[in-house]
Specification:
binds glutathione, Glutathione S-transferase Yfyf (Class Pi), Chain A, domain 2, Glutaredoxin, alpha+beta
Length: 209
Amino acid sequence: MIDLYTWTTPNGRKISIMLEELGIDYAVHPVNIQEGEQNTPEFLSIGPNNKIPVIVDQDTGLSVMETGAILIYLAEKYGKFLPTDPMARAEVMEWLMWQMSGLGPMCGQAHYYLRNNPGKAPHTEDRLRAEVARLYKVLDTRLEGREFICADYSIADMACWPWVSRYEWHQVNLADHPNVRAWYQRLLQRKAVQKGYHVPKNVGEIPSG
Ligand SMILES: N[C@@H](CCC(=O)N[C@@H](CS)C(=O)NCC(=O)O)C(=O)O
C-alpha cells in the first residue's frame, strides 16, 4: 500500500494519475498547502522540502519526495510506464528531466507572476511568457506524428500532462500548439487521468483544451 500526501496541483496530480494508471490501492492524505500544512513537523518528517507530493511505501517504510523520483520509484516497483531497454529508457528519462527542469518550474513561475502578481514585474513576465512559449514549441515539435511523448505511454506523459492542464494559468492558447492539444485531449480521455486529476478532491471540470 502506498500513502500519498498531496494537494490539487500539477505536481500532486502527476502521482495520483500514476497511481490510478497502476490500478493499485493507495491512501490519500490531503496536505492543504494554502493553509501551510506542508510546514508541520509531521509533514517535514517525510517531506523535508516543504512541498507536496510525497509518498510513503508501507511495504518498505520508505518515504520519497520529488515527483521525478516518485514516478521512477513507482515505475520500477511495479514494472510499468518506464521501459527497461536502455535506449527507450533514456528517452523517457530525457523527457521526464525536461519536464522537471523546464516545463514545471517555468510554468510554476509563470503562474506566480502572470496570474498571481500581474503588472509587478513586466520584464519577468515577458521572459516567462517567452520561455513557456518556447517550451510548448519544443513539446509540439516532439509530438508531431506521435501519440505519446516517447514510444509508449510513460511517466514522461504523466509528468507533463498536469502542467499542460494549467495552460490558461500560464496564458497559452493550445490552438497555437496543435500537436500538444491533440495529445492533451487524447490523454484526457483516459479514466485514470480523469480520476487522478480529482485527487485529493474534485475541483470541477477539467480544462478541455
Ligand atoms: N520539484 C518538486 C516541486 C514540488 C512543488 O513545487 N510542490 C508545490 C505544489 S505544485 C508545493 O508543495 N508548494 C508549497 C510551497 O511551496 O509552500 C517536485 O517535483 O516534487
